[in-house]
Every structure is written in C-alpha cells, then in structure tokens.
Design brief:
The protein is an alpha/beta fold. Helix content is 50%, strand content 11%. A seven-stranded parallel sheet has the order 3-2-1-6-4-7-5. Helix 1 runs parallel beside helix 2 and helix 8 runs parallel beside helix 10. Bound molecules: S-adenosyl-L-homocysteine (SAH). The site of S-adenosyl-L-homocysteine has 19 residues, from helix 7.
C-alpha cells in the first residue's frame, strides 16, 4: 500500500527557463523516492545541462512527461497543490510544507496528486494557482524569500519522505474514509466551463468582470472538493437549468409568433 504512493505523486514544473533546474529537480526527487516529473512547456529541454545536474537521476529525466499545458499535466489528479514564494492578492487555503507532505502522502494512497512549481522569474500565474486546492509556502527569510526552483522541489519532496517515514512508524493518521474518489482536475475544469456558460446565459455574471466571480467560485468549490458523484449531480443541475431556459425561451417565441 505505502510504496506505491510514491508513484501517485507527480512534480510539475511549469515553463522552466533553465534546464539545469530541471536536472536538479530530478535529482532532488529521486533522493526522496519520487520519480514522476512533468514538464509544462519547458523553454529548453532536452538539454545537456539538465543531464549534467541530474547526476544519478537520469532515469527520472528520461521518463519526464513533456506537455503543452498545465491542464494536461494535472488532468487525472484529485489533489493539486501549488507552491508560491510570496502571498497573492486573493488568499487561498494555505498549508505549510510539513502539512503538505502529510496530506500528499495520505491522499497518494488512493489517487493521483500533483505539486506545482513555477517559473524562475515570476513563479506561477494567478490563473495557475487558482487550479490548486492548497498553496504551500516554504517559510524563508522575508527579505529574500525565493528559493532556487530545484531547492524548493527538494524541501517539498523531503517532507513527503518524512510523511512516508511517519506512516511506517505508525505516527501518521490514515487517509479519511470516503466512499467516492475526489473529482479529478479535468472533470472539475469542465464543470467550471459549464458553470460559467450557464451563469452567462442567466445574466448572472457581470460581463465586465466575469473572472473575479469565477475565481471566487473556484475557491469555493476547491475548498469543498466535490467527489465524482457530487460533481456529476452539480453538472446535472446546470444541464437542467439550461434545458429549462431553452424550453422557456422556445415557449415565449411561440407565444409571440402566435400573437403576431
Ligand atoms: N520570483 C518568483 C519566484 C520564483 S522561484 C516569484 O516572485 O514568484 C521559482 C519557484 O520555486 C516558485 O514558483 C515556487 O514554485 C518555488 N519556490 C521558491 N521559493 C519558494 C518558497 N519560499 N515557498 C514555496 N515555493 C517556492
């Protein structure tokens, strides 16, 4: 049960500029027992510098999955955690690296987990961070808070290893019992599209600023973390709403035709 949890955890590096950091991240992961590296639109990969920095973790580098979009990298994941070197405008549920390691390890017993790392120069965008259930900040010197990318991967991966060891020693709580798996990221993204479309049809979303409302709704649903069955009920409510609007409009059209 426990050994496979490592295989359910993926480290996702978004838009990395320096291939040396990709190699460094691969090495950091392997040292801690992780092996699944996802690279979202890396600027320079494959590259000699990545190979050089990976040292004995070439296997992690060779198996790295390169994708074009973040959505592809996290599609099947039931838990998504984003790392951030600084606070953001809209607060998001926050965990410290220790709690992050524990949660990721517990959930990885059952489903896929993703940990996101941002660009060297500007981190993750707000839009990327809003796809996450939690944000994690590594406590650091407030006057110089940003770690090197591979160093940040090291700290977070280390905490996953600590959680694994705690479980072996019987000091980590088992995962919460639940009957249905959490909805994976791609299903939740489809739900948000459906929700936005329906709210626009209803005239609820203000056309000048739909994003702000959608961000708040994302935060709400990400806090609740609907399971697969709950999400399909929510989708059903949207479909029923759209059908109702469609048929009401048809009736009104017919009425005005009859009158005319
Ligand atoms: N200048 C960027 C920092 C990017 S550092 C910014 O202001 O956001 C590159 C990446 O390393 C970050 O996106 C994050 O994934 C990770 N990282 C660096 N320092 C971190 C910290 N203190 N806590 C959590 N993640 C950190």
């Amino acid at each position: 049960m426990t050994a496979n949890a490592f295989d359910n955890i993926r480290i996702v590096l978004v838009n990395t500029s320096h291939p040396g950091n990709i190699g460094g991240a691969a090495r950091a992961m392997k040292n801690m027992g992780l092996s699944r590296l996802y690279l979202v639109a890396p600027k320079d990969f494959p590259a000699e510098k990545a190979v050089w920095r990976a040292a004995g973790a070439l296997d992690v580098l060779d198996q790295a999955v390169v994708v074009e979009t973040l959505d592809e990298a996290i599609a099947e994941c039931g838990l998504v955690v984003g790392t951030s070197a600084r606070g953001r405008r809209i607060p998001w549920p926050l965990v410290d690296p220790r709690a992050c390691g524990e949660r990721c390890w517990q959930e990885a017993q059952r489903h896929e987990v993703a940990l996101l790392f941002g660009r060297e120069d500007r981190g993750l965008t707000n839009e990327e961070l809003h796809k996450c259930h939690y944000h994690v900040h590594i406590p650091s010197n407030p006057d110089y808070s940003s770690l090197n990318l591979a160093a940040a991967v090291q700290v977070v991966s280390y905490e996953i290893r600590m959680a694994h060891l705690a479980q072996e020693q019987g000091t980590l709580l088992p995962p919460e019992p639940w009957d249905v798996p959490p909805a994976p990221s791609q299903a939740v993204e489809r739900y948000y599209e459906h929700l936005q479309e329906t709210l626009e049809t209803l005239g609820f979303l203000t056309p000048d600023n739909p994003r702000q409302t959608m961000t708040r709704l994302r935060r709400l649903y990400n806090r609740v973390r609907p399971d697969e069955m709950e999400l399909s009920i929510l989708r059903g409510v949207l479909t029923a709403t759209q059908n109702y609007i469609y048929h009401t409009n048809k009736r009104l059209e017919k009425l005005s035709d009859d009158e005319g």
